[in-house]
Amino acid sequence: MAEAKVQQYKVDRVALLKSGFEKTPSFIFADYCGLSVGQITTLRDTLRGLGAEFHVVKNRYAKIAFSQLDHEDVASYFVGPTAIAYCGDEAGPVAKAMLKLAKEMPIELKGGLLNGEVYDASAVEDFSKLPTRMELIQMLMRTMMAPVSNVANVLNGVIAQLVRALAAVRDSKSE
After folding, report:
1. Does residue 158 have a pLDDT over 60?
2. Closest Cα partner for 62 from 77, 52, 51?
3. Segment 67-107, tens digit of pLDDT
4. Mean pLDDT confidence for 114-136
5. Rg for the chain (alpha carbons), in Å?
6. C-alpha–C-alpha distance, residues 26 and 115, integer Å
7. Domain range summary for the chain, segments of one domain joined by +
């Protein structure tokens, strides 16, 4: 039985997808059916501002590329019209933006591959509610600065009491 010959452009397309997938830590999969060109442009512009890209892909090519990267477990998301949001450094803000836009546009999250772990749509939504990396750093810095601020406030209070006491002594001597 003769083996079927795969056309080179298909092999090249899968290789291109695979190289893009290797460079990206997280992905969000969405059903984009019903989006107009204008809505897709708005979605892409919004995500680009967050360091992400939004691409419509052929399901078969994406399944092959992800399986070559040992992520066969995402194959179930590639049924029907599927687009992929390639997340940059952080996937949380991208998921949050996509969920916000889903209220105005016919876009539905299917799931995601976030830092090597597969999540369904509800888990991606929960993930979007977590604080971003920068928000966590800000919380940590406020927590670390609290004792220093308290010491400064106590010292300022002591100095203010000393100044009031000296002013009272001055006032009592001037009378």
Report:
1. yes
2. 77
3. 888 888 888 888 888 889 988 778 888 888 888 888 888 88
4. 81
5. 28
6. 5
7. 8-130, 132-175
The residue to which tokens 């939504």 are assigned: 125
Query: Which residues does 21 contact at the CB level (< 8 Å), separation at least 6?
Result: 27, 65, 66, 69
Q: Would you state the pLDDT for residue 138?
A: 82
Question: What string of DSSP letters covers 90-130?
Answer: -SHHHHHHHHHHHTTSS-EEEEEEETTEEEEHHHHHHHHTS
Ramachandran angles phi, psi of 47, nearest 5°? -70, -35
| Backbone dihedral region for residue 51 (phi beyond 0: left; psi -120 to 50: alpha; all else: beta) | left
The topology under which CATH files domain 8-130 is Alpha-Beta Plaits (3.30.70)
Bridge-based pairing of strands 83-87 and 117-120 is unpaired
Q: Residue 52 in contact with residue 86, Cβ under 8 Å?
A: yes
Residue with tokens 């772990």, as numbered in its chain: 117
Alpha-carbon distance of 112 to 27, in angstroms, equals 5
Residue 89 contacts residue 51 (beta carbons within 8 Å): yes
3-state helix, strand, coil in the chain (%, to 5): 60, 15, 25
